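1st attempt posting a full record on here, be nice pls
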Amino acid sequence: MTVFTLLLVLGVAVAFFVVLRRLTIVEQELRRVESLVVRLEERASHFAAPPAPPVAEAPAEAARAPAPIAAAAQRSPAPAARVAPPPRPAPPPLNLESLIGGRLPIWIGGAALVLAGFFLVRYSIESGLLGPAVRTALAALFGGALIAASEAARRFPRPPRIRVSPRCSPAPASPASMARSTWRRRSTI
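the predicted structure (as tokens):
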């Protein structure tokens, strides 16, 4: 009963922090949308046409004009057409150098961590450090953590990836790289 109460309290605490995080994200999004609305209102007021001077009408003709025509005459001009954003550039193709130099060591390290965790749990079970009740509780916690992580990955937006061109990225400051970049700048001037 105490394990169930502990898990229940832990679940409530996790749910509280998830809701608190989502509330923070929603508030940030609301501030962003409000600032966009303010900017759009400023643009709209900038492009708004000045009020038309009053035109003297004949009273008999104004009384006989149908309501839809009079309403159409008082409408503001049509809003400007929306401009589509420029298309995103295509992602760079996957080459062998980026695979071996960047992604492969990360995957190998992740596999090593998974195997280390597996063998650590196996050793602790074989030595009698983890009994059946503790194993069940740890499995439930691990399952809950995986569910929470998958839900967080689905709901929370990913930060945009920043792509830096090779010219702007900080290269290792070796004398050869500095001399090469200096020589390139002088040769283009």
